[in-house]
Design a protein that fits this description.
6-stranded parallel β-sheet; alpha/beta
Length: 289
């Protein structure tokens, strides 16, 4: 499959009056993407644009993609579609190819369907916003799809070793494999030693809700930066303990907003995208739940 980049960013310029976009996945009812994208459309004056939410699993994805017409600008994809969509596209970016995962599809004016991964630049942008641009070493909690995106981001900012804390030998092999592919020196350690992860200058937690709660008591007195990719419930027990000890905390909403900014740029061709308005809308939506 060819590698290509998404739509170029433009300052102002002509944008179609009526376009559709949506987030797809299963389950999908919890997704904040409609809130974020609609807030961006409002701030950008794209009054005729729509952004929806569709429950689509791997089996239903080909038919859904086949039904897209010229009124569609793009798609946001969540689990379990990030890899299933790749054979249905005309090309994917080098970033998406590096982790074999697409979370963004842009439908171009000439009918092509191009895939990208905005999670990786989203992680980097969220860290940069908190002043983290380079670290000497880092740790990753977990070994799923988000962990591979975290390794891809760390390949650009981590000067030394990344230690991944995992629950099985198979997961350890996977993370070392991703490290080799992405050019990151990855050491793996058992989950029983996960408290050691918290001593790194940067710790990225990629595990499901509740998994890291037991680690809250192990936060050191002078912690570095914690990036916890969860946004609901928030704060997690680990994030709350981290902040209480004066450490910098980056949350899942930060990641969600930053990756959505890149999606809106690609789908609309407009920049700059209103990050602050999107974050405010996301915070309000979470507070109302």
């Amino acid at each position: 499959m060819s590698s290509t980049s998404g739509r170029k960013r433009t300052e102002g310029g002509t944008v179609p009056d009526n376009k559709k976009a949506a987030v797809l996945g299963s389950p999908i009812a919890h997704s904040l993407s409609p809130v974020l994208h609609r807030a961006a459309y409002d701030a950008l004056g794209l009054t005729g644009w729509e952004y929806g939410r569709h429950e689509v699993d791997e089996a239903a994805l080909p038919a859904f993609m086949a039904g897209l017409d010229a009124t569609w600008a793009g798609l946001s994809l969540t689990m379990p579609l990030k890899r299933a969509v790749i054979p249905l596209l005309d090309g994917i970016s080098a970033t998406a190819s590096s982790v074999e995962a697409v979370n963004t599809v842009v439908l171009t004016a000439d009918g092509r369907r191009l895939g990208d991964n905005t999670d990786i630049p989203g992680i980097l942008a969220a860290l940069r916003e908190r002043g983290v641009e380079r670290v000497e070493r880092a740790s990753v909690l977990g070994a799923g799809a988000t962990a591979s995106s975290a390794l891809a981001a760390l390949s650009r900012i981590c000067a030394g070793e990344v230690t991944a804390y995992v629950r099985s030998a198979a997961r350890a092999d996977e993370m070392r494999g991703w490290g080799e592919r992405l050019g990151v020196t990855v050491r793996t350690a058992p989950w029983d030693d996960a408290a050691e992860a918290l001593t790194a200058p940067l710790t990225i937690a990629t595990t499901p809700a509740g998994t890291t709660d037991a680690l809250a008591a192990a936060v050191p007195d002078c912690p570095g930066t914690l990036f916890d990719v969860l946004y609901e419930p928030w704060p997690t027990a680990l994030a709350a303990a981290w902040a209480a000890r004066g450490g910098a905390v980056v949350g899942g909403l930060d990641l969600l907003v930053h990756q959505a900014v890149f999606q809106v740029e690609q789908m609309t061709g407009r920049a700059p995208v209103p990050l602050a308005a999107m974050r405010t809308a996301g915070e309000a939506a979470l507070a109302a739940r």
